[in-house]
């Protein structure tokens, strides 16, 4: 049993990293494969082979009426990922994460001629119990690349922050859930997000120095 039960219509911070802290993304193709699987597996319907049905036949990804989670924000870093998900179907987060994790592990192991687990156990989850916490976490997740000192978030294509500010349009996240609270003005949100991300980055560096 999970310490944090996953309930419908509730939001959760979901995260995990590579086993032994290893990189789980080695090139742009890996990031794109993971992003596409995030769309393909967000459904309550069987999809068969993601490679055959979605990459070769180009049939599209998922069905808008059959989603099992809403992806509010995400960031893919070289050795870990973060999501903010809202569950909208029974066991939606569990099913979504299992499909994404298993599918990507099979892809990665085949591509790099390896075997075994790729991720460090089951994904971790934290209940987001207030709107203020949701907004705060959106900054942390959207700019997680920056928080970890890996470069500017606005230049990182594999985070929903690039969608929030209009630089990319992967069509994966429900950014309106956050942006509507800033009058749908991405400039207001950018200021809010960067202020909080800078604070978190400084706190992280301060903790590292103290340790």
Structure description:
With 211 residues, the protein is α+β, with helices and mostly antiparallel strands. It is built from 8 helices and 4 strands, in the order E-H-H-E-E-H-E-H-H-H-H-H. The protein has helices at 28-40, 50-56, 92-111, 131-142, 144-147, 161-164, 176-179, 186-210, and strands at residues 11-17, 69-77, 80-87, 124-128. Strands 2-3-1-4 form a 4-stranded antiparallel β-sheet. A hairpin with a 2-residue loop joins strand 2 (69-77) and strand 3. Helix 1 (28-40) packs antiparallel against helix 3 (92-111) and helix 4 packs across helix 8 (186-210). It is globular and about 45 Å long. The model is unreliable at 59-63 (pLDDT under 50).
**Number of helices in the DSSP assignment:** 8
Helix- and strand-based class?
Answer: alpha+beta
Give the overall shape, derived from the CA principal axes.
globular
> First CA to last CA: what distance?
33 Å
Strand order of the largest sheet: 2-3-1-4
Beta-strand fraction estimate: 5-15%
Q: Residue-averaged pLDDT, rounded?
A: 87
User: What is the helix content?
Assistant: 40-55%
Major β-sheet, in short? 4 strands, antiparallel
Number of strands: 4
How large is the radius of gyration? 17 Å
Uncertain regions: pLDDT < 50 for 5+ in a row? 59-63
Order of helices and strands: EHHEEHEHHHHH
């Amino acid at each position: 049993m999970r310490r944090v039960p996953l309930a419908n219509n509730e939001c959760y911070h979901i995260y995990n990293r590579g086993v032994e802290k290893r990189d789980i993304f080695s090139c742009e193709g890996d990031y794109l494969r993971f992003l596409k699987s995030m769309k393909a597996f967000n459904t309550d319907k069987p999809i068969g082979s993601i490679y055959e049905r979605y990459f070769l036949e180009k049939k599209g990804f998922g069905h808008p009426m059959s989603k099992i989670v809403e992806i509010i924000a995400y960031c893919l870093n070289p050795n870990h990922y973060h999501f903010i998900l809202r569950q909208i179907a029974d066991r939606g987060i569990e099913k979504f994460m299992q499909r994404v994790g298993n599918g990507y592990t099979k892809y990665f192991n085949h591509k790099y001629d390896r075997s075994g687990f790729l991720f460090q156990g089951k994904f971790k989850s934290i209940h987001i119990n207030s709107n203020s916490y949701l907004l705060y976490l959106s900054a942390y997740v959207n700019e997680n690349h920056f928080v970890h000192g890996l470069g500017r978030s606005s230049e990182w294509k594999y985070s929903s922050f690039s969608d929030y500010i209009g630089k990319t349009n992967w069509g994966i996240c429900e950014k309106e859930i956050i942006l509507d609270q800033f009058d749908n003005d991405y400039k207001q949100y950018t200021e809010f997000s960067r202020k909080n991300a800078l604070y978190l980055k400084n706190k992280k560096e301060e903790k590292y120095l103290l340790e």
